[in-house]
Amino acid sequence: MSWNVIHDGDGSASRIVLKEHTGSTAEVLFLGGQVISWKNERREELLFRSNKTLWKPPKAFRGGIPISFPQFGTFGSLERHGFARNRVWLLDDSPSPLPAANSQSTVDLILKSTEEDLKIWPHRFEVRLRISLSAGKLTLIPRVRNIDNKPFSFTFSLRNYLSVSDISEVRVEGLETLDYFDNLQRGERYTEQADAITFDSETDRVYLSTPTKTAIIDHEKKRTYVLQKDGMADAVVWNPWDKKAKSLPDLGDEDYKKMLCVDSAAVETPIILKPSEEWRGRQELSTVSSSYCSGQLDPRKVLYG
């Protein structure tokens, strides 16, 4: 179990490749600290990556798991989703106080505020990210520390672009009965009425006070993604559908059929840090073989069993 660094010519696509003993792999860009690939032991790609991804730093890569910090979306005055995804992260040689991850292939990255950052967001910070790969599981542990002499607040998300067979064959369970902000309706607040979330049109919602586990069931692939999280109370569900997909220059016209974003997020209630305080989140993505229609796996057992 190991990792190595692959450098490209101009550094825009320099990345870390993690490997573990069953054959699964993950790739992480230094640009944005962004996971861009997660393959299982059968070499199947589990994260979506756009066919038209534009490698034009500092623009973030469309796909994988981009990070929003210190602002999610347009919930603030900064550029959309903040600036952390547009900065080059560094290897973190001293990721204390996290314990060593001896049983996994693990890498630690760090992003520190610069004088340029302070011009647009006047707060000194350190963001650390641990990425750990083990059999059937990808774990991300983000941490934000206030190294300033005054408090600050921020919103945050890990946007998970999941690879699916066909968006019309996918359902999300675990978010039913919850309140959500509908970004397609000027952020109005609604309550989810469906037994599970299914997709037949553009969806852009922030679900509030969500449980720690969510199941994303792909009927055609007979695969269920299990998203487990801590420290990030909200969940964002997004698919652009056909009209919006055609308006995005770095997304193929038909790509919306093969992707679904389910984010771990802290949006409704910003995180407040006093000087020297640190916030820690955790996200664990795993997959289980499933066939909901044939009864081989009841998603309720995944969520609550």
Describe this structure in words.
- By secondary structure, this protein is mainly beta.
- It contains three helices and 21 strands.
- Strands 6, 7, 8, 9, 12, 16, 17, 20 and 21 form a nine-stranded antiparallel sheet that branches. Strands 5, 10, 11, 13, 14, 15, 18 and 19 form an eight-stranded antiparallel sheet that branches.
Topology pattern, helix = H, strand = E: EEEEEEEHEEEEEEEEEEEHEEEH
Coarse shape = globular
Average pLDDT confidence is 90
Low-confidence stretches: 292-296
Tell me the fraction of residues in β-strands, as a range.
35-45%
Specify the structural class: mainly beta
Helix percent reads under 10%
* First-residue to last-residue Cα separation: 30 Å
Q: What profile does the largest beta sheet have?
A: 9 strands, antiparallel
How many strand segments?
21
Features:
single chain; 305 residues; mainly beta; 21 strands; 6% helix; 41% strand
